[in-house]
């Protein structure tokens, strides 16, 4: 099949490369010429395991091309919309500027029978609005959310645990509530209209489902659950999944807060409740909480959309989830302050990690960097190290000191803080080795990743999150 992928950020670049690797002819389209140049050379513009190999193989096979020209989408069977939906600066709602621009740019190049597949995470109700623009071309809009995790993006795209396709339901009664940033046209802007009208009858729902199954043929053949639903459900599956994951993390972090005033150990608590299959141990890692480009923004955008729909009270708990999450960063800072005797002023604090999680160079809403910045704000001399994220962190927070070498970063430190559980820190840094680098004996484990007993046995004061 021939596919176009509009938006070559995290999601789009991985999707384009993965689709080429399973035999499709793919064109990736993005407005950023630097990104397109890098991708065209088979280089990943960000750190993601296995992506570079996949890109290089796709580009050299000739099946994968990249361009800034949206006209190159013409002739594709399926057009994926994979642009970002960041948090608006003025509110917590999703910013749909890029989705609008992608759809409008695509319109003149659509043919009857094409499928436009939305992948971006959007407020529920978006597909119904976009379809009003897509339908006159004879193309069909589906919503096909993506569930990839950074660090596992290639694996998650090629071997998804489920595929969800939302299609138009003629008997559905979508909400008429407007969506901020989507329903209102600004005066003075000329919106492109479809240059080619329908030249054959539009696809039936069965045709569209067959097309989407053909796109994901290896996963479908392997028996991956393939869920066909309506637009609104498909949009909601994505935000509900992320809201659930965020809630699970904040639940265990709330238990950590209780553990801290009772002497309980939240990691043992998580192990014990996690044995109940209905609960499960995954995503019960208490620590400095969640960050990244998805969970924080998605729960806020979900709350904002629920309020627009007059159902704010249904997801009030997500405000609490967010608040608990942010409190844990403050707690980590307080632990460091207490551990070094009440003030970090002019103390050297080593922060192990900058990325919001390991196997990523992404620093968007990184809890660890937030902790580092707060410590710096209290007068500490903060040294940050990270195997992948230093260039990004340096651009955003030039006031911090960055050192590539882990041991150099630890040397003569007054306190070591683990914020991102890279193997280099969590598994490969022994208390004995750390003792040879600095005379301080203070570690704050923001991810509960270390063996507390081992550090204590080596003479260190160990402080975990929600642990005695
Ligand atoms: C998430 C979802 O997992 C993915 O399905 C969705 O498509 C996009 O958002 P991602 O942002 O890549 O993926 O990271 P994830 O692995 O979910 O971790 C999110 C954050 O939660 C990280 O900061 C991580 O450190 C934190 N986390 C995770 C915890 O604090 N505790 C845990 O137990 C698990």
TrEMBL record:
Q: Does the record's keyword annotation contain rRNA-binding?
A: no
- EC number, UniProt record: 1.1.1.22
* SUPFAM superfamilies reported in the protein's UniProt record: 6-phosphogluconate dehydrogenase C-terminal domain-like, NAD(P)-binding Rossmann-fold domains, UDP-glucose/GDP-mannose dehydrogenase C-terminal domain
Which pathway, metabolic or otherwise, does it act in?
Nucleotide-sugar biosynthesis; UDP-alpha-D-glucuronate biosynthesis; UDP-alpha-D-glucuronate from UDP-alpha-D-glucose: step 1/1
Which GO terms of type biological process are on file? polysaccharide biosynthetic process; UDP-glucuronate biosynthetic process
Give the residues the record marks as binding substrate.
147-150, 238, 283-287, 291, 357
Q: Which Gene3D superfamilies match?
A: Cytochrome c1, transmembrane anchor, C-terminal, NAD(P)-binding Rossmann-like Domain
Please list the residue ranges annotated as the UDP-glucose/GDP-mannose dehydrogenase C-terminal domain. Answer: 350-452
Q: Which reaction does it catalyse?
A: UDP-alpha-D-glucose + 2 NAD(+) + H2O = UDP-alpha-D-glucuronate + 2 NADH + 3 H(+)
Q: Which InterPro entries match?
A: 6-PGluconate_DH-like_C_sf, NAD(P)-bd_dom_sf, UDP-Glc/GDP-Man, UDP-Glc/GDP-Man_DH_C, UDP-Glc/GDP-Man_DH_C_sf, UDP-Glc/GDP-Man_DH_dimer, UDP-Glc/GDP-Man_DH_N, UDPglc_DH_bac
Q: Does the keyword Oxidoreductase apply?
A: yes
GO terms assigned for molecular function: NAD binding; UDP-glucose 6-dehydrogenase activity
Enzyme class (EC, first level) = oxidoreductase
Give the active-site positions: 294
- Any idea which positions bind NAD(+)? 30, 35, 85, 121, 150, 297, 364
Which keywords label this protein? NAD, Oxidoreductase
Q: Which family does it belong to?
A: Belongs to the UDP-glucose/GDP-mannose dehydrogenase family.
Q: What is this protein called?
A: UDP-glucose 6-dehydrogenase
Q: What is the lineage of its organism?
A: Bacteria, Bacillati, Actinomycetota, Actinomycetes, Micrococcales
